[in-house]
Write a structure and sequence with these properties.
Blueprint: H1 8-28, E1 32-35, E2 40-43, E3 47-50, H2 53-63, H3 68-79, H4 83-101, E4 128-132, H5 157-169, E5 175-179, H6 189-198, E6 200-201, E7 204-205, E8 207-212, H7 220-229, E9 233-237, H8 243-250, H9 255-268, E10 272-279, H10 287-296, E11 302-307, H11 323-340, E12 343-346, E13 373-376, E14 382-383, H12 400-404, H13 407-413, H14 428-431, H15 436-442, H16 446-449, H17 454-468
Helix pairs in contact: 1-4, 3-4, 5-6, 6-7, 10-11
């Protein structure tokens, strides 16, 4: 029978494990989220790794506040193995986690990490969530997916709090972004941030991000109020490295200087901040200038970018680039970013047959509609993504699961919108034909198939309308 008093050798290795585990958990708890429901290791905001059942159980216990000793005893008792074996497994698991966080893992250095085929595991619940608090905005961007600024009904503070609660507890989603429109135009933003940060306990609390044009954040006191409320990070829209180009895109003279000041205020307040750029015909020839500005003036560690989505005001202003045009531009951006020592993050899906993001070191990209992303409108509707005009359900009127596992939501999550030319491609499960809203406005699949095939496009559009139900803003 095992003695309740540990031996000297056992006490030593247990003390060493306790110290090591405690240090790892304390250092990483802001970035790591373990979700037992679908056995996900989420490196916030949106990187996921799949865990086996035991690894998920161990990490969940550790990040929920259990000591390493408590976990060793619980796992050893449950599975009938020696405590020393469990302790060694925990140590190796935590070393693997650190290697993943440092991006220093390899099959040799981390044998407990193995690759699995795409689609072997399924993400059941969203990884990221966003709430558009309003569609009001100070800018008049030529490509705004939401047709901002525009007046719509907006939920009250208490109604938004109910939705935030559902996002955390019903949708099991660990990260929330407040977006718009321009979310800083809501006077209750600090209160909503504080409420979101109050959910959960110990090391398992919601992470809160702000997606903003940065204009109101030029006020240093306002940014301090956001920091006091608990804001973790901010993404600021910066469309160029000069006021001439940026202000021409935003339709708001003087917005560049305010936006830049906002970025600096976030950094001074201790809020992690980066900039995002929507690449369009007006700034595509100014990307080197932007990168130089980010490195020399803002001292950014990284920046992100995306394509114009052909909804909202982008339907009236022909400023978007085709997939083919973007495929020619992206390698130049990647190369110059590396030359200047700044990391480039790319958001938009592009058909892999036109541009393979994995081969260019940008990671896998595909449509996240009703899948990895939970997007909420100012009226509380669950949108497939923020560029859609109507939702697949309302979070105030239904439970999350009623919406998320509905037939319409599954249409988007199961990628039923895949263009016909893509269905026989070996990369279809990863690529999914990129953005369905792009093909809605393209009028054909000629860009990927080499021919227009109007009948195939007509059938695809008909199926979209019958089963997908909803379309982009302005459609």
């Amino acid at each position: 029978m095992h003695s309740s008093i540990p031996s000297v050798s056992e006490a030593k290795w247990l003390e060493e494990l306790e110290s090591f585990a405690s240090e790892v958990i304390d250092r990483t708890s802001d970035y790591v989220w373990v979700r037992r429901d679908d056995r996900l290791l989420i490196l916030r905001p949106n990187t996921v790794h799949f865990l086996n059942e035991t690894a998920a159980e161990i990490l969940d216990l550790l990040y929920s506040g259990s000591t390493a000793g408590e976990v060793v005893r619980a796992i050893a008792s449950k599975y009938g193995v020696k405590e020393e074996v469990v302790a060694n497994d925990i140590r190796n698991l935590l070393k693997t986690l650190l290697a993943i966080l440092k991006r220093q893992y390899s099959p040799i250095a981390t044998p407990s990490l193995r690759k699995t085929s795409f689609g072997e595991h399924k993400i059941v619940y969203p990884v990221l969530s966003e709430i558009a608090l309003t569609y009001r905005c100070q800018n008049r961007c030529v490509f705004c997916y939401a047709s901002s600024p525009r007046a719509t009904d907006e939920l009250s503070t208490e109604q938004f709090k109910k939705i935030i609660w559902k996002i955390f507890y019903e949708a099991r989603c660990p990260t929330l972004s407040f977006t718009g429109g321009e979310p800083t135009l809501r006077e209750d933003l600090p209160e909503l941030i504080e409420y979101a940060k109050s959910l959960g306990e110990d090391k398992k609390r919601m992470r809160v991000n702000l997606i903003t044009n940065g204009i109101k954040c030029a006020d240093k006191d306002y940014v301090k109020a956001l920091a006091k409320a608990g804001l973790d990070s901010a993404q600021v829209s910066l469309e160029a490295g000069s006021p001439e180009v940026h202000d021409a895109i935003t339709g708001n003279k003087g917005s560049f200087n305010k936006t830049v000041k906002g970025v600096k205020n976030f950094r001074e307040a201790g809020i992690h901040v980066h900039t995002n750029t929507t690449i369009c015909s007006l700034n595509k020839d100014h990307m080197k200038e932007l990168i130089d500005f980010l490195v020399d003036e803002l001292d950014n560690e990284y920046f992100s970018a995306n394509m114009v989505i052909r909804t909202g005001t982008a339907l009236k202003n022909d400023v978007g680039l085709t997939y083919t045009e973007m495929a020619k531009l992206l390698p130049e951006i990647i190369s110059y970013s590396r030359e200047r020592g700044i990391k480039f993050v790319w958001y938009s899906p592009i058909p892999y047959c036109i541009f393979n993001p994995v081969a260019h070191g940008l990671g896998s990209k595909s449509c996240a509609a009703c899948h990895g992303l939970l997007s909420i409108s100012p009226e509380g509707e669950v949108l497939p993504c923020s560029s859609f005009s109507k939702g697949v359900g309302n979070m105030l009127e239904q439970t999350f699961e009623e919406i998320w596992f509905s037939r319409v939501a599954k249409y988007w999550r199961e990628k039923k919108f895949v263009p016909p030319p893509c269905k026989e491609c070996k990369l279809v499960d990863i690529c999914s034909g990129a953005c369905p809203l792009y093909w809605d406005s393209a009028g054909s699949f000629e860009e990927i198939s080499g021919k227009k095939s109007p009948f195939r496009y007509f059938v695809w559009r008909l199926e979209r309308r019958v089963f997908g139900k909803v379309f982009g803003v302005g459609k």
